[in-house]
Amino acid sequence: MGTALIYDEEMTKYKLLWVDPACKIEVPERLTVSHEALVATGLADRCVSIPVREATEADILLVHSEEYLEGVKKTPYMTLEDLQEFTLQYGDVYFHPNIYHCAKLAIGASLQLVDAVMTGKVRNGMALVRPPGHHSMRSAASGFCVFNNVAIAAQYAKRQYGVKRVLIVDWDIHHGQGVQYCFEDDPSVLYFSWHRYEHQKFWPQLRESDFDSVGKEKGAGFNINVPWNKVKMQNSDYLSIFFHVLLPVAYEFSPDLVLVCAGFDSAIGDPEGEMCATPDIFAHLTHLLMNLAGGKVCAVLEGGYNLTSLPQSVCQTVQTLLGDPAPRPANLESPCKSALESLQCVRSAHRQYWSCLKHAADLPTSDISTKRIKLEEEGEKTGEGEEDKGTDEKVWAQPPKRVAPSIRTAVVLPDGVACPDQCERFSSPGDPDPLVVSKLRENYLKDGDDGNALTTLYSLTALADKMDRNEICSGLVLVRDVSMAMMCVVQHAATALSNRVLVVCVGDGKVRSDCSEDGKTLVVQFSSKESDDQRSKYYIPVCLQKGCSDVPGLLHSISGLLLPLGYEYDPGLVLLVQMPDSGICDSVWQQLIGLLQGLARGHTLVLMREDERTRVGPTASSLLGNAAPSLGQLHAPLPEDVKAVESLRHRLKSDWKLLQTTAPETG
Ligand SMILES: NCCCNCCCCCS
Ligand SMILES: [Zn+2]
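Above: query sequence and 5-[(3-aminopropyl)amino]pentane-1-thiol SMILES. Below: predicted holo structure tokens.
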């Protein structure tokens, strides 16, 4: 299934008609440069183009009041003075004779996207709209927003399609207070937002944007605010929040639909955000959401005011929705102290609502909430002034080209096993290289002349070479001896390949130690066996009480341990090994494959024992980029497993910075 793109140039036909420094950044060019970039890169042509429609009054009244709607309905007939008068009652927003029409199209675009995804016409999609929506409230416009596009889309999905649980991810750099107010007592909508806050100094300067606003009454726990109290946040700060807050909670919530308030003022160069995250980070943020809700992800444009990073970020998002591998998450640094403080505060505030956060640490001693300025005490509104920011123009590298290899998934299967649709059977090219053959024979083949095993091993190394050269994206190989084949690839990678290899081992089984000393290989093994082995920072055994059959435990350790490790290690190849009798169920196996494809430009090489024939189909489906089926609502991971992950993170965080979930102790 494809990716929808919804855009109509009519939404460029309104603009600021008077002088207002607070609103001058919200210009029609935001939409034109974004759409033009999608066309110029060829991405628009790869999408399913779906027309906008005009929202009905019933759609608007799903969220807004009659009196507010009545007021806005009059604006097309207002004089310039009346428009300015009407605007004065709201903050940081402007009206225009055509903005009501465009606001109805922005809602309509969002609803068309929900229709296309919920009816299965497409898998996911993006709506390029203006005016944005996430600041608008039931009876008020705010922050360039007239109607709350995404809030209306959520209510519409529930009413029209009986959707039970909606996850709204708001990665815009401003707090979508309008969305928070709309759903704060509603447990069927989980609203997640990070936003520039600076201890309430940054617009909209609301006390309720802080981490301790967790939702009300039945909605307690279903509102997650992550305040950024400093600017210049980087990719690693954003990813840490996904790994240690959003993903674990999202998997526990198990949404039927994911809506993204896709604002790109959180990207480098934006005058509002003043952050340093690069546009390619949105490829990863999008990818990490794409295995939720069976892949039903609807991204709706919110903010984004730098006309260079905005189109780049939009293209990164759409290219990932289309299924292209993400660029490598190169040289991630440690999250900064302020980000770790916020991370610790959010996890602490939500500890009582989410079992995956049960063992989260207490609030930091230097509790940042005491730094929250008391507006009335200090009497001044020290929000950032309207004067132009220092013109320290930011520069950043063009996002790397993301070329999808001509062959997406190659397979090496025993003769009796059919090649799955859209996969290509792979066999070693030409005659085996005698040198490699002798090495394989002496190292791996016990019983001398096992021709079959030799051919398979040779194909395996040849396949790894093709992936290394980006000629093939991913691979699946069935072998007789999984451990031996794993060692073979690791040895081959260590010598022949130019890249680090992340080995993910699912299930019990001996992994020889010599494969992870030099840093060329990082091995993470999930098993039921306690391993006191602390041999090196490059071998990480994760023990689960009930082994890999325990869905919540395995998922918790994937998002809280494996992903941070994998992103920090940034391998060129991921070797995913399913040991015999691992007990892992297909749906978690598919989630694991899906999530790991965010690494190594999607170069995931899967090894399974040759009798696992029933798993070939589901494995191939995930390697091809199809979304994993939803896991359904998860019960709590075992407390021992949650504690084990916490203690592993604590032990390893000096070596692996993305494992940190708390601010370093001051003192
Ligand atoms: N320096 C301009 C102040 C603008 N404040 C409102 C921002 C609304 C963003 C919507 S994503
Ligand atoms: Zn914004």
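The domain at 2-15+24-380 is CATH 3.40.800.20 (Arginase; Chain A).
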